[in-house]
Write a structure and sequence with these properties.
Layout lengths: L2 H18 L3 H16 L11 H5 L6 H13 L3 H8 L5 H5 L6 H11 L4 H9 L11 H17 L3 E2 H18 L4 E6 H4 L4 E2 L2 E6 L3 H9 L4 E7 L3 E6 L4 E7 L4 H9 L2 H13 L2 E4 L2 E4 L9 E2 L4 H7 L15 H6 L14 E5 L10 H10 L4 E7 L11 H17 L4 E9 L10 H4 L4 E5 L8 H13 L5 E2 L21 H11 L2 E5 L9 H9 L4 E4 L11 H10 L13 H9 L14
Helix pairs in contact: 1-2, 8-9, 13-15, 20-21, 22-23
The structure holds 2'-deoxyguanosine-5'-triphosphate, calcium ion (2 copies) and zinc ion.
């Protein structure tokens, strides 16, 4: 809970009090408190334990100070929650739309049952919203333009939120509607794109209207944007939009292919069909009327059936991005993509020795539960003060603790590691002698991210030249927008970095944390072509983080990686042998045992 969160809540309270018709002095006090919180130079949560210090801030009296305390302590405020519950759900969201005043927002939710920005958009498009008192056509259209321009900016949700939400809503639909079969996530989530515009679901049923109806009535649904016999579009409480298509099983293959996209892949496939005298649509294939055949629709239960009819092997969803996949398929040159179960170890994991949440042993036990054969504990080095990094003394104690845990926990190898900071000048936080005591060294940039290209490139390559550095962690340091923030990548000469990685035998990490996904898909592709070997790891800071692996695998697949491109597909023994090689010999594709 930082100052801006506190400010937003106070400002929301002011708005709600105003809507309730409370005295002006009361709403003003909250408005003022919001401004004070936003402008306060330190972190309010840091002084929240000290009521007197809070009250010494001009404009903050006893009641407000206690509210700041409550917010900082628990992240929520009883008074605010109670106040919100007096109003329709989603009202505050509507109020954030430029051009909508409190009275209009209230009418929209009460009279038109609108509770989300998407719902508002649909009501404007349908001409319903403009009929509200004091709105009118011109006003409504201007609001619509605002919505659309805001959307372009922070519109997409990261895969790490979208995919679990898609799976959850699929489960809810299955429960609510037992005769919905083959419930499948399609669209960009199925292609494992790092961010997702909306969720697309597909299922089969003998009674499609019953399914769309049950879907629109699910508890998680806050707004229904459209509902027909075979389609429905809804907004979930979380703000995610979900499109559902229901079909008979004989159309399932062609519809899944269509609905998975990408759009350009679909267009390319249609062109190919056309060149074969066929016409491809979301129901199946028909022969062109110009040919002498009947023009009847050919249908397909599976996507593979459609591909086969087009003379192609099945193309995995992650490859369907118009990156030459159809040509490769035609020539028999599709990669034999890495799959989740190929991954045998996780080599970037934190514990409570630095900024992780639980002891080493808990992380190790959790890794074993996931079926991993080996795990490296890589807490931060001392340069990274905020992350409680390890001094040389603590690193050595950390090594001893890892050995102790390894002896104690059967069935998994535990490697001694460190995520060592690459300082601004390219030096590392530990000496070579200290690094040589470790099994795994992940070197990462965490500071001075604004360096210019030549300096940053030389900095990273300097770290690669160190014989003890196993891999570079999250190379570009970019952050995917997670609803709160994002971060641009550092400026690097990627060609030079990838060449240096291949030359020195330094692995590049595909950091699987959904807010990082760094290397990203396009960089994986480029690095792989340069001969780089990868390490996919989760950077987990708590046990649940170990399950991020699938996002890293998806990203590797989007970069056309096979198991032999990724070193942690090796079993524990082969991996030990690999680490025993001098760095410069850790090159070339790895041998995969089948
Ligand atoms: P997103 O939601 O922006 O992350 O991306 P997608 O790929 O999930 O796109 P979405 O939800 O608009 O549509 C789902 C799929 O439906 C898309 O990948 C391909 C297909 N599709 C949608 N609109 C069109 C279209 O105008 N033409 C073609 N060929 N396919 C379309
Ligand atoms: Ca979509
Ligand atoms: Ca969609
Ligand atoms: Zn890091």
């Amino acid at each position: 809970m930082d100052n801006s969160d506190i400010a937003r809540i106070f400002s929301d309270i002011a708005t709600l009090l105003q809507l309730k018709g409370e005295a002006v002095f009361k709403t003003r006090a909250y408005q003022r408190a919001a401004e004070i919180a936003a402008e306060y130079p330190g972190e309010l949560s840091a002084i929240a334990d000290d009521l007197d210090e809070l009250k010494s801030i001009p404009g903050i009296g006893d009641a407000l100070a206690k509210k700041i305390q409550e917010l900082s302590g628990s992240g929520r405020l009883e008074y605010y929650e109670d106040l919100k519950s007096e109003f329709p759900a989603g009202l505050l969201t509507l109020l954030e739309v430029p051009g909508i005043g409190p009275k209009t927002a209230l009418r929209a939710s009460e009279q038109l049952d609108i509770h989300s920005v998407e719902g508002l958009e649909a009501a404007i498009e349908a001409g319903e919203f403009e009929k509200l008192p004091r709105v009118g056509h011109k006003n409504a259209q201007s609001i619509l333009r605002h919505i659309r321009s805001q959307r372009r900016q922070s519109d997409r949700i990261m895969l790490g939120l979208a995919l679990p939400a898609a799976e959850e809503i699929s489960g809810r639909l299955a429960e609510a509607c037992p005769d919905a079969s083959n419930i499948t996530v399609a669209g960009s989530s199925r292609r494992m794109k790092e961010s997702v515009g909306d969720i697309d679901l597909l299922c089969t049923s003998d009674d499609p209207p019953a399914v769309t109806k049950a879907f629109a009535a699910l508890d998680d649904v806050i707004d229904v944007l459209g509902q027909g016999d075979t389609k429905a579009s809804v907004v979930l409480k979380s703000g995610l939009q979900v499109d559902l298509r229901v079909t008979e099983s004989r159309y399932f293959g062609a519809l899944l292919l269509y609905f998975t996209g990408s759009k350009q892949h679909g267009i390319n496939l249609r062109a190919r069909a056309q060149s074969m005298g066929l016409s491809l649509n979301e129901y199946g294939l028909t022969s062109d009327s110009s040919s002498d055949s009947t023009g009847e629709l050919e249908t397909f239960d599976t996507e593979a059936g459609v591909y086969e009819r087009l003379g192609l092997p099945f193309i995995p969803p992650e490859l369907r991005e118009d990156h030459g996949e159809i040509e490769a398929a035609e020539d028999g040159l599709l990669p034999n993509l890495l799959i989740g179960p190929d991954i045998k170890g996780d080599l970037h994991v934190h514990s409570d020795w630095s900024d992780g949440r639980v002891p080493i042993k808990e992380m190790v036990v959790a890794a074993r539960e996931l079926g991993l054969e080996y795990v490296a504990i890589t807490d931060h080095s001392a340069g990274r003060g905020v992350a409680n990094g390890l001094s040389v003394e603590r690193l050595r104690a950390h090594n001893a603790e890892i050995e102790r845990v390894e002896a104690e926990v059967a069935g998994i190898r535990v490697l001694k590691g460190s995520e060592v900071d690459i300082r601004a000048d390219g030096a590392l936080d530990y000496t070579d002698e200290v690094l040589s005591e470790l099994d795994i060294v992940i070197a990462s940039v965490h500071s001075a991210m604004g360096q210019e290209r030549a300096v940053m490139t030389e900095r990273v390559i300097a770290a690669m030249r160190n014989p003890h550095v196993t891999a570079i962690g999250h190379l570009t340091t970019r952050l995917v927008f997670d609803g709160v923030r994002s971060r641009e990548p550092v400026d690097l000469d990627l060609d030079a970095v990838f060449r240096a990685a291949a030359d020195t035998g330094t692995l590049l990490e595909i950091n699987a944390s959904p807010k990082r996904l760094d290397l990203r898909d396009a960089h994986v592709m480029q690095a792989r072509k340069a001969g780089v070997l990868f390490l996919i790891d989760t950077d987990a800071h708590r046990p649940s983080g170990l399950s991020f692996m699938r996002y890293g695998v998806g990203t590797a697949r989007r970069g056309w990686c096979e198991a032999r491109d990724v070193v942690n597909t090796m079993d524990a023994r082969a991996f030990d042998e690999f680490l025993a090689l001098p760095k410069e010999r850790r090159t070339g594709k790895i041998a995969v045992r089948t």
